[in-house]
Design a protein that fits this description.
mainly alpha, Helix Hairpins, 2 domains, 10 helices, 0% strand, flat
Length: 239
C-alpha cells in the first residue's frame, strides 16, 4: 500500500513539470511510460494481480517484487552515476570486453588441446572449456575444474595473470570515468557559484539553484565547503 500511494503521488506530481504550459498530462505520461514509472508499476503489480485472481498461481510474478530494489535509485544517484560512467567510456569499455573475449577464446582453445585427452569430462570441446576460461579469467576460480598436466598448469597460471590484468583494466576505466564525472560536476558548480557571486550577494533564487545543483551532483558537505572557500578567497584577492 505504501508503494501504491507513492506511485499515485509521483504520477500526480509529475504533472507540475509542464504546468506552466498547460500540459500536465504530458509529464504524467512521461512518468508512466518512463523507466522509473515502469519500475514503480512492476513493484506493485503482483500484489493487485493476486487480489484480482486469487486462485491463480502467481509465484512466477512475485519475482517482479525484486524490482523494488531499483527504486532506490529514486533516492540515491549511485546507480545512475554508474550507468553514466560506463556510457561515457563506452568505447574503452567495449575495447576491454573485446580483449577479454579474445582471451577467453584463446585460453579455452589452448586448454582443450592440453587437457582434452586427460580430462574429457571437463574439456570435451572448446565451448566446454570456456567455462573454465571464464571463471579463471575473472579471478573467481571455483576450483571444481583444474588442469592436471604440466602444460595445462602453465596455461592456467598465464590465464590467471591475464585475468587480473583484464579486471584491473575494466576497473580502471570505470574509476577514471567516475573521477572525471565528479571533477566535471565540481567545475560546473564552481562556475555557477562564481556567476552568482558577481554582484557580491547570493539571492534566494541563487541559493535554491546552487542547492539543486549540489543535490543533483551528489556533492558532499566537505566538497561544498572547499569550493565555497576557494571562490571566496579568489573574490577577496581580486578586491
Amino acid at each position: 500500500m505504501f508503494f501504491t500511494l507513492e506511485y499515485v503521488l509521483r504520477f500526480w506530481a509529475t504533472g507540475a513539470k509542464y504546468a506552466d504550459h498547460g500540459q500536465k498530462w504530458q509529464g504524467r505520461r512521461e512518468y508512466m511510460f518512463g523507466f522509473y514509472g515502469v519500475i514503480d508499476l512492476l513493484a506493485i503489480l503482483p500484489f493487485y494481480l493476486q487480489m484480482l485472481f486469487p486462485g491463480a498461481d502467481m509465484r512466477a510474478l512475485r519475482i517482479l517484487r525484486l524490482v523494488r530494489v531499483l527504486k532506490l535509485s529514486h533516492y540515491n544517484s549511485a546507480l545512475e552515476d554508474l550507468f553514466n560512467a560506463v556510457k561515457n567510456e563506452a568505447r574503452s569499455f567495449i575495447a576491454a570486453l573485446y580483449l577479454l573475449t579474445i582471451a577467453i577464446i584463446l585460453t579455452s582453445s589452448l586448454m582443450y588441446y592440453a587437457e582434452g585427452d586427460t580430462q574429457p569430462e571437463h574439456f570435451s570441446s572448446i565451448p566446454a572449456s570456456m567455462y573454465w576460461a571464464i571463471i579463471t579469467l575473472t579471478t573467481v576460480g571455483f576450483g571444481d575444474i583444474s588442469p592436471v598436466t604440466w602444460i595445462g598448469q602453465v596455461l592456467a597460471t598465464i590465464t590467471a595473470f591475464i585475468g587480473v590484468c583484464t579486471v584491473a583494466m575494466l576497473t580502471g576505466i570505470v574509476a577514471s570515468s567516475f573521477a572525471t564525472q565528479m571533477a566535471r560536476r565540481r567545475v560546473v558548480y564552481e562556475s555557477q557559484l562564481r556567476e552568482a557571486y558577481k554582484d557580491g550577494v547570493l539571492s534566494d533564487e541563487e541559493k535554491k539553484m546552487l542547492l539543486k545543483l549540489r543535490t543533483d551532483f551528489n556533492l558532499s558537505e566537505e566538497q561544498i565547503k572547499s569550493i565555497n572557500q576557494q571562490v571566496e578567497d579568489e573574490i577577496k584577492q581580486s578586491k
